[in-house]
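User: DAK2 domain-containing protein. Structure?
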Amino acid sequence: MAQVPQRFFDAAAVRTWCGLSLRALGRAREEIDAINVYPVADGDTGTNLYLTVESAVAAVEAVFAAHAVRTGEPPGAEPGRVVGRGEGPSLAEAVGAMAHGALIGARGNSGTILAQLLRGLAQVLAAGGETAHTGHTDPSDDGDHRDHTDGPGLRLALRHAAESARQAVAHPVEGTVLTVAAAAADAADAAEGDCAEVARAAHEGARAALATTPEQLPALERAGVVDAGGHGLVTVLAALVETFTGRAPEPPARAAHGPAAPVAECSPAHGHVDGVSPDRIHGDDAYRDDADGLGGPAFEVIYLLEAADTAVARLRERLDALGDSLVVVGGDGLWHVHVHVDDAGAAVEAGVEAGRPYRIRITHFGHGDAHTTHAERPPRERAQRAVVAVVPGEGLAGLYAEAGATTVLARPGEPPASGELVHAVRRAHAREVVLLPNDAELRHTAAAAAEQARTEGVRVALIPTRSAVQGIAALAVHEPGRRFDEDVVAMTSAAGATRYAEVTVAEHRSWTTAGICQAGDVLGLVDGDVAVIGTDVTDVAATVLDRMLAAGGELVTLVLGDEAPESVAAHLEARVREAYLAVDTVVYRGGRQGALLLVGVE
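Assistant: Predicted structure:
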């Protein structure tokens, strides 16, 4: 269905563009993954770009929702819907949210560069570009006085985006997304007219540059494909064209040996390019390709970093000496760091010296020796069955992993998106997957991920666990050797038979089912509802445990967060021994899990 075009680049256009970009990347994700051969052939560029934009969309939608709460206006519908000016926030707020969301959610090399492209774009749009190219009123705007940018302002933004992205990469390489971004900016500079004309020129310039990437990068020429990150940027720019014209342009050629060569066909169903061995383009059988054709570092290290500019400058130098594919993006005290290294610990330590790293992700590029070639690695066969679980802390992530589960870490205030769950299902690499969301708020997110995974041929069963302790109970009875349906029934039954509770601290004054709480009060929640309000963690935990055991129980599971008092576990264990015969207690360390204490009673 044709998109109703936007006339100016305002907050509504930002929202529309983000939503359209997410949809387009969702359609192109498998195709982009399949042609990912540089800098590492790990088959995830499309997925990483999708997850990066999904985070940007969530941030933009949150700004619109917050504005609706303040003004009493309806928050709007799905991302990509055209919102009339006057309904939403300012342009600066919208592009700021887009850039911040992309920064904190950036995945992989291409996702990190895309985040910087969006940040560079946002810096110009938020500042209003040059006064002559932006407006706050227009006779045809029906009295609207919200800020917006026109064609010349968009040209400036695209140029700054390309330049800032190139500056963020330690050693820029031609034939990559940086080349495509520069070509888009060059074409936009030559365009006259409104945002639609500038966007159309940028897209056409990017598309032409994408077709020539195999000529600039030997790895692409040998594989017979165009650059995957560049393909993703062309997809995002196509969404920008659709935002301002109402119609999406034709998708880019999927692979080529040069401008005059026939386009090789990429099959989404099989994820490969005709004439190119699938072993060459999938991450599990990854062939690395550096400039010299030799293997490269074994690990990808990514983290967010709170640090001063001067500290980040020193960090760049240290990480550049440790590895390659270094990209550091961000600013104003918050940075996103991406690097490929052999010593992952040293890369993290460098971040600690610079500031406060968090949301640390370390990925091994392959099994066995990371420097063996793809020809020496046997293809990794799919497992018959796997469990994918969302866990709230590093400690529980380790516990679940020891039990054989593939984990997705959900830190406080940072719930995973559906794309992250789908990515975890792919990492599990199994024909059958049991999905444990471990949070009632993730029910719809997990359902969407399960549906997506099913379209990819994976048999997925979603068990609606509402707490990590229910997930522990389900995982305890998991038996991969029995029939899938029987295993799911047993795990569902174990989870359902486990009552759950948590002890946490109130962040603000609020009405609850147990009365009014003040900021700083200790809350005891049983099965999701506040049941106890107090001032002492141990006392509240003991009251919660007594209420749960009043209905009976055989096993108590305690998961302690980092900020829980050291004495609380010993006190509760002693209470169970003294007051409840034949009830066992197990204690786990959950790490930074948000709640002070999680409690399960089976």
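The longest helix spans residues 45-71. Residues 74-86, 129-146, 255-294, 367-379 have pLDDT under 50 and may be disordered.
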